[in-house]
Amino acid sequence: MSCLNTCSPKSFWSMVIKPKNKYSFTVERSFHISKAVIDFSSRPRDNYGVYLHSAMTSLVVDCGDQKGIILCNLGNQETKKMLRPEADLDVHFQTGQEITLYSVKLHPDESTNNLYQTLTIHLSGYEFIV
């Protein structure tokens, strides 16, 4: 068992991943992502301003030379229970790691279909205070 997980003081950590943005940084304090949740207000709307009932997106990380690692797939599908609007995660990043977090369409070839637009994702977890 690592003392980092059980002995170190922890502080709340959060981040919002907006569509079409990549968030690249060097980790200054080790942190843990515990939860990813879709922001329902970011769902695509039809021509009349009504939210579409199905929307899907993936949370992705580039970590060092490992690119395009999917951490979870999220969706709001009221008729099909294939994807959930939230995911429990257990992902740790260590001080000094170079990472990029972003969201991508689940079906990138569906460029004209609003159902496959990326959504805003809220991440939460904790960082280690040493």
Topology of helices and strands:
Blueprint: H1 3-6, E1 10-17, E2 23-26, E3 31-38, E4 54-63, E5 66-77, E6 86-93, E7 98-104, E8 121-128
Antiparallel strand pairs: 1-8, 2-7, 3-6, 3-8, 4-5, 4-7
Protein model, in words:
The protein is mainly beta. It has a single domain, classed as Sandwich (Jelly Rolls). The protein contains 1 helix and 8 strands; from the N terminus they run αββββββββ. The strands form 2 sheets. Strands 1-8-3-6 form a 4-stranded antiparallel β-sheet, with no helix packed on it. Strands 2-7-4-5 form a 4-stranded antiparallel β-sheet, with no helix packed on it. The longest helix has 4 residues. It is elongated and about 50 Å long. 18% of the residues are buried.
Brief write-up:
The protein has 130 residues and is mainly beta. The chain is built from 1 helix and 8 strands.
Helix content: under 10%
Number of structural domains: 1
The CATH level-2 architecture is identified as Sandwich
Unreliable spans: none
Helix and strand string, N-terminal first? HEEEEEEEE
Largest sheet: 4 strands, antiparallel
Strand content: over 45%
Q: What's the multimeric state?
A: single chain
